[in-house]
Amino acid sequence: MIKPPMRPFQLERYFAKYEFKVRHLLSPSDCEALSLAELLDLADEITRQLWDNLRLAYTESAGHPLLRQEISQFYNQITAEQILVAAPEEAILLAMQAILHPGDHVISIFPAYQSLYEISRGLGCDLTFWQVQETQSGWKLDLNELEKLYRPQTRLLVVNFPHNPTGYHPTQEEFLTIIEFARHHHLYLFSDEMYRLLEYPPNQALPPAVDLYPLAISLSGLSKSFALPGLRIGWLVSQSTDVIEKCAILKDYTTICSSAPSEILAMIALRNHSAILRRNQKIILENLAIAKDFFNRHSQILYWIAPQAGSVALARWVGNLNFSTIYQQILEEKGLMLLPGSVFEIEDSYFRLGLGRLSFPLALEKLEEWIKTKNLLDFSS
Fold first, then answer.
1. Domain 10-35+274-371, classified CATH 3.90.1150.10, yes or no
2. From edge to edge, which strands make up the β-sheet containing 350-354?
3. CA dihedral 194, 221, 68, 155 (to 10 degrees)
4. What are the pLDDT digits (tens) for 157-169?
5. Distance in angstroms (rounded) separating the CA atoms of residues 245 and 235
């Protein structure tokens, strides 16, 4: 089990402090949330009856059988019995505790959502980062570096594609190389696929890791691509029934089971995935065009690499600016929250952009207003 004290989750602490107190957000990772009415309008006869007749009782610990059946449609090598429904964050915790032991070595993509690597550290594992690198041709992972990071004690490789926070997305060939590295060394591969199906164009989507490799564990859910973070529904998928069983046993000590209303609403969403994904991709692509124009206009003080997939991107300030105060100034003067790089344990010159919300143009406008009031061009060299 995790040994206290765990380091504070910097991103979540930052959101807890500001998210519901500011007027404008420029860094959220989710897509514009669907309303309950919008989602229920998509219900078919079966799911509408399930909703109307729902009793607020306990649910099956592994997840509603019909929900797991719907989830299984997104995989080629998986049955409903190889799926465990859990809140996405909970699922990361369960998987890491199920497969890791003190002294194991873990290789994790970096930067990343903190729990993807922090939990292994809390379990007493040795941790090495595999860093996404900023290059002139875009964000890249050095595939040759993986072999250099490997140790005899290495047990787990953690990846996340489309990548949060950079928007990096490997090619099919690159992804298969990563899979083959894990296979060659008989490693577990934890694949965070929360932003999967937000590729542009959609045919750029990678196959789920769990369909390609028996020791892969795929994480997915409704918080990002499906614009339903409030349902708190995600899932772990593994070809290994042993891994799923271990996670299920651990879940008895966390949530036990999922919310009954959330499970029915999740079924409705999954049965209407095409319409929901098209809606979210449209929002992202419209915001992407606005962002490209914005960064072109302000290239003397701001730089970004446009994302290849997903709902987030990483930008950075250019020039001699005081990054220790700039985000607080923007908060106080414009009521605008940006996520500084420090919450991802990188330099504060970087900040995350969220491209999935309808409010993105207004939030970007507030940032532009602030830039103009500060005459930042005078400090960009």
1. yes
2. 302-304, 312-317, 350-354, 339-340
3. 50
4. 999 999 999 999 9
5. 13
